[in-house]
Amino acid sequence: MMSRRDYDLLVVGELNVDILVKGDVEPVFGQVEKLVDSLQVCGGGSAAIFAAGAARMGLQVLFASIVGDDLFGRLMLDLMRSAGVDVSHVVVEPALATGATIHLLREDGDRAMLTDLGSIAHVTLDLVDPDWYYAVRHLHVASPFLLQGLYPSMPDMMRSAKRAGMTVSMDTNWDPTEGWHLPEFYEHMDILMPNENELAALSGQPELGAAIDAMLERVPILAVKRGADGALGAQGSAQIETPVYAVDVQDTTGAGDTFDAGFLAAWLAGGTLHQSLLLASACAALTMTQVGGFNGQPGWEEALALIESQTPEHALGLRALQG
Ligand SMILES: Nc1ncnc2c1ncn2[C@@H]1O[C@H](COP(=O)(O)OP(=O)(O)OP(=O)(O)O)[C@@H](O)[C@H]1O
Ligand SMILES: [Mg+2]
Questions:
Q1: What is the DSSP string of 125-140?
Q2: Is residue 121 in contact with ligand 1, taking CB distance under 6 Å?
Q3: How far is the CA of 2 from the centre of ligand 2 (A)?
Q4: Ligand 1 atom 28: the closest Cα is on which residue?
Q5: Quick count: other Cβ atoms within 10 Å of Cβ 276?
Q6: pTM, whole model, 2 decimals?
Q7: Which of the residues 2, 160, 171, 303 has an alpha carbon 20 to 30 A from that of 138?
Q8: Ligand 1 in contact with 249 (CB < 6 A)?
Q9: Considering only CA atoms, which residue is closest to atom 7 of ligand 1?
Q10: Is any atom of ligand 1 closer than 6 Å to the C-beta of 58?
Q11: Counting atoms of ligand 1 from 1, which one is nearest the CA of 197?
Q12: Which residue ranges form the domains of the chain, and what is each CATH number?
C-alpha cells in the first residue's frame, strides 16, 4: 500500500531496445552483405530513457509497462532498475515479444529507424492502478503517437491525474502518421515539451513565433527543443532561450527525453522556467557524450559541474534546488 505522494513521477510507456548500427549503414538489397563499424544493443524507448534520466536526477519514478518474457525484456528491466526506476509493477507477458528499433547511424549525424512495436502496442491504461494518481506528484506522457494501445485513454489518464492533484507534462515526439491529432489532450496539460519540428506540426504554424503563440493558447508552459540551437521556454508573456552546453557529441539518441527529465527535476524542485531549461540542456548535452540513450545520463553533481564550467552565473541558484 502506497502512502500519499511516495513518488515524484508516474510514467506509463514502452520498454524496448535500440540496436545501434554505425558506419556504412545504407542497406543494399540483392543479398549484399556489408561490414559496419559497430553494432550495439542499448536500452531504448522514449518513456524509458526519460524515466531513467529522471531517476538518475534523484526523482522517485514509478514506471508502468509490459514486456515479453525474453532477452530484450530482461535487459530493459535490468537497465531501469540500475537507473533507480521502480519497475516492480511492470507486467511480463510470455505471449509478447519486447519491442525493438534498429537505428542506422550515418557518419553525417543523420539516422534512419526501423521499429517492431511488439509489446509497445500492448501498453494500455489497464497497466495503471488508479490509486497511483494519489501516490505520485507528476504524470509524464511520452510518445502518444507510438503508444497506440494507450493513446485513446490518454485524455482520461491525464484527467484522472489532474483530478487527483497531479501535474502533467507531455513530450509528443514524432507522429509517424503525421496526423498530429491530440483531441482533448491539451486541456489536462501543464507542460508541453516538443522539439521545434513537432511544435510546428502540432500547431500547424511553420514559423516558430507563431507556433509558440498558437500553442500557448492551449498549454500554460512550453519547453521547445531546438537541437544544436538550444532550447526555448515560454509561459504567458515570458520567453527564454538557452544555448546548448558545448560537449563532444557522440550520439543524439534520447537527448530529447533526457532533456525532459532534467527539466522536470528542476521544475518539480521548485525551479523557475529558466532554471529548468538550463538543467534540461545540461542533462541533454551530457547524455550525448556517450552512445545509447541510457548512457551518459547525469546525476545532479555531474549536471551542476557542466553548468558551473560553462555558465557559472547560474550554478548557485540551481545548486540550491538540489534535494
Ligand atoms: N550539439 C549539441 N550539443 C549540446 N547539446 C545539444 C546539441 N544538440 C542538442 N542539444 C540539446 O539537446 C536538447 C534536445 O535535443 P533535440 O532538439 O534533438 O530534441 P528531440 O528532437 O526531442 O530529441 P529526440 O530525438 O531525443 O527526441 C536540445 O534542446 C539541446 O539542449
Ligand atoms: Mg523528442
A1: GGG--GGGGGTEEEEE
A2: no
A3: 32
A4: 227
A5: 27
A6: 0.93
A7: 303
A8: yes
A9: 228
A10: no
A11: 21
A12: 10-28+36-321 (3.40.1190.20)
Asked whether 50 lines ligand 1 (CB < 6 A), one says no
- Ligand 1 centroid–CA 321 distance in Å is 23
Q: Is 230 in the pocket of ligand 1 (CB under 6 A)?
A: yes
Residue 217 CB partners (closer than 8 Å, separation 6+): none
Give the span between the Cα atoms of 301 and 298, in whole angstroms. 8
User: Going residue by residue through the chain (323 aa), what tens digit of pLDDT does each one get?
Assistant: 555 789 999 999 999 998 989 999 999 999 999 999 999 998 988 999 999 999 999 999 999 999 999 999 999 999 999 999 999 999 999 999 999 999 999 999 888 999 898 999 999 999 999 999 999 999 999 999 989 999 999 999 999 999 999 999 999 999 999 999 999 999 999 999 999 999 999 999 999 999 999 999 999 999 999 999 999 999 999 999 999 999 999 988 889 999 999 999 999 999 999 999 999 999 999 999 998 889 999 999 999 999 999 999 999 999 999 97
